[in-house]
């Protein structure tokens, strides 16, 4: 309505209407509490720009348009409380491209417009806003007449469109790195603008997933930050936020800052090796990647070498976790989030072997911190601690002595023999043993293998006590058995395969959560099928091959092939086909017929 009314008013009156919408010194527009007012203001300004144009609104210089963008567009883009307001901000920039006739005025503000659109189209949590920002970018670039391949706007719209911004994770990591790498050459203020946007808004978000994705976004732009600015950002922004008391910073911001420090450390380590990986799973060495055997390599890009952290920053980063523990910042609401983020930082420090050197007494201190988290009752904390332990063994084999690792392993075994040990702690100990078995080059100790077999088959009764029967514990024991199989000890092949088959067929435990035994059955079925394929490929010894191609294994897979779970049936049928194919080569007969049928269906 304001746009239609202003369209029939004299030019001076239209300028007065615009001035009334955007008064000087009005802090209400920048307040998140006035999100609805900012939404209406943005829509009204966009309509006036679209209908009246720059001449009627007296946009006679780039500074006048810059003032409007600073008063309306930027606060609207930063309004996290209402997605409609951010969508209206995209409408404002779209209307600028349609209504401002003088290209010189828009060109003078193109850098600011592209900065706003980069943050909105790639980092906004709402897909509607991301797509609206990409459409506004195409309108701005199209009406500015960008024709050469070196124009910043052309480079931007060549990467960002309706489809590429659909996947939020891809847009905020891989695509953000590509766009930043192309645009930061012509606009040196782009990277600081993006970092400031992430730190002020997304790392403080109440949504945990948004904070995690923001940390990964910071890691994606690290390759394009100059040394001085990166050091200042770490020492003045991230580290203080990580260590401040809850009275100074909320727990959510401390959690986001810890994750951001971890991603910065990992990114700098990747740069020190002259290569940067962008992937959905995180840094190499993570436990779940190794367990599933499906670590998908992300897009690779060679980037110039960056120097290591300076000694003061190495010391600051190394001391973050001890200071957190000393200040008891794990206590209270959200403490498990901080503990998991601290374990992620320890993992990143272990991974950064060339950027962050560790003193001899630092690793035992970190192992002590990992042990305190490995017995935590939250699964996310236990997995984060296990990933940190695996990073230590894989990435720093020369710094972590065998005695330290063996001592930790023996301590886990000893605590699993205690009758009154907490059930949640037992889960963590089994997970830690599975990780160590997977990561260490030496074959597992016989008592560790026996422990895995006992815990994996401990249903419906447990040899120690009926109070320690637990589905998650059996699941991690199955993971440990699969790690034992990959190490290839021939003397335990038959026992391990027999235990896996039993888990795949027998475990139908239920509790208030439903059929919790399905976790054990599906992991065992996946593992047995993968081991059969590995044995047929020649990756295991003859003892393992004989045990895996036995009738008992085939019968277990046939039983799993009629499971109610779709993915269990799929992997079981794949294992049956592999066994049939392998035994057809050896025995012929009925297995040759089954193998021929399987081959026909696979085609």
UniProtKB/TrEMBL annotation:
<dbReference type="InterPro" id="IPR016024">
    <property type="entry name" value="ARM-type_fold"/>
</dbReference>
<dbReference type="GO" id="GO:0048487">
    <property type="term" value="F:beta-tubulin binding"/>
</dbReference>
<dbReference type="GO" id="GO:0007023">
    <property type="term" value="P:post-chaperonin tubulin folding pathway"/>
</dbReference>
<dbReference type="Pfam" id="PF25767">
    <property type="entry name" value="ARM_TBCD_2nd"/>
</dbReference>
<feature type="domain" description="Tubulin-folding cofactor D ARM repeats">
    <location>
        <begin position="2"/>
        <end position="145"/>
    </location>
</feature>
<dbReference type="InterPro" id="IPR033162">
    <property type="entry name" value="TBCD"/>
</dbReference>
<dbReference type="GO" id="GO:0007021">
    <property type="term" value="P:tubulin complex assembly"/>
</dbReference>
<dbReference type="GO" id="GO:0005096">
    <property type="term" value="F:GTPase activator activity"/>
</dbReference>
<dbReference type="InterPro" id="IPR011989">
    <property type="entry name" value="ARM-like"/>
</dbReference>
<dbReference type="InterPro" id="IPR058033">
    <property type="entry name" value="ARM_TBCD_2nd"/>
</dbReference>
<protein>
    <recommendedName>
        <fullName>Tubulin-folding cofactor D ARM repeats domain-containing protein</fullName>
    </recommendedName>
</protein>
<dbReference type="GO" id="GO:0000226">
    <property type="term" value="P:microtubule cytoskeleton organization"/>
</dbReference>
């Amino acid at each position: 309505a304001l746009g239609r009314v202003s369209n029939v008013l004299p030019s001076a009156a239209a300028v007065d209407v615009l001035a009334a919408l955007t008064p000087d010194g009005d802090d209400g527009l920048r307040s998140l509490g006035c999100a609805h007012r900012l939404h209406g203001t943005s829509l009204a300004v966009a309509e006036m720009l679209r209908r009246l144009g720059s001449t009627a609104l007296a946009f006679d210089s780039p500074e006048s348009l810059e003032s409007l963008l600073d008063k309306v567009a930027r606060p609207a883009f930063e309004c996290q409380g209402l997605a409609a307001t951010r969508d209206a901000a995209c409408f404002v920039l779209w209307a600028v491209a349609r209504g401002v006739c003088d290209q010189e005025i828009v060109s003078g503000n193109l850098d600011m417009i592209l900065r706003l659109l980069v943050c909105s189209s790639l980092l906004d949590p709402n897909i509607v806003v991301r797509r609206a920002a990409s459409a506004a970018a195409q309108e701005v670039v199209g009406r500015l007449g960008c024709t050469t391949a070196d124009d910043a706007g052309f480079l931007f719209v060549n990467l960002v469109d309706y489809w590429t911004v659909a996947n939020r994770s891809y847009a905020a990591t891989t695509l953000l790195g590509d766009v930043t790498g192309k645009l930061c050459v012509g606009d040196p203020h782009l990277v600081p603008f993006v970092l400031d946007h992430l730190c002020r808004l997304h790392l403080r978000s109440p949504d945990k997933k948004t904070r995690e994705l923001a940390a990964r976004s910071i890691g994606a732009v690290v390759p394009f930050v100059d040394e001085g600015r990166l050091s200042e950002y770490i020492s003045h922004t991230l580290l203080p936020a990580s260590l401040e008391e809850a009275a100074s910073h909320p727990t959510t911001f401390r959690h986001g800052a810890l994750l951001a420090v971890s991603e910065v450390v990992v990114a700098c380590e990747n740069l020190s090796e002259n290569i940067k990986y962008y992937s959905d799973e995180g840094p190499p060495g993570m436990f779940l990647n190794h367990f599933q055997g499906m670590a998908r390599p992300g897009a690779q890009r060679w980037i110039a070498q960056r120097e290591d952290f300076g000694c003061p920053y190495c010391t600051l980063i190394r001391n973050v976790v001890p200071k957190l523990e000393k200040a008891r910042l794990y206590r209270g609401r959200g403490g498990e989030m901080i503990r998991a983020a601290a374990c992620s930082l320890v993992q990143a420090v272990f991974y950064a072997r060339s950027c962050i050197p560790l003193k001899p007494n630092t690793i035992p201190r970190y192992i002590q911190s990992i042990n305190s988290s490995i017995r935590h009752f939250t699964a996310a904390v236990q997995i984060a601690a296990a990933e940190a332990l695996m990073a230590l063994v894989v990435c720093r084999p020369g710094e972590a002595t065998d005695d330290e690792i063996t001592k930790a392993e023996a301590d886990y075994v000893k605590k699993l023999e205690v009758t009154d040990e907490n059930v949640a702690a037992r889960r963590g100990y089994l997970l830690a043993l599975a990780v160590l078995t997977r990561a260490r080059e030496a074959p597992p100790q016989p008592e560790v293998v026996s422990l895995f077999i006992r815990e994996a088959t401990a249903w419906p009764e447990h040899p120690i006590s009926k109070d320690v029967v637990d589905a998650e514990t059996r699941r991690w024991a199955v993971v440990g058995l699969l790690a034992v199989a990959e190490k290839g000890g021939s003397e335990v092949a038959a026992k391990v395969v027999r235990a896996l088959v039993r888990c795949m067929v027998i475990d139908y435990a239920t509790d208030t959560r439903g059929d919790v035994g399905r976790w054990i059955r599906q992991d065992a079925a996946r593992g047995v099928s993968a081991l059969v394929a590995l044995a047929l490929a020649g990756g295991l010894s003859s003892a393992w091959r004989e045990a895996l191609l036995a009738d008992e294994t085939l019968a277990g897979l046939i039983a799993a092939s009629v499971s109610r779970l779709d993915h269990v049936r799929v992997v079981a049928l794949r294992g049956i086909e592999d066994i049939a194919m392998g035994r057809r080569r050896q025995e012929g007969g009925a297995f040759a017929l089954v193998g021929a049928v399987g081959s026909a269906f696979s085609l």
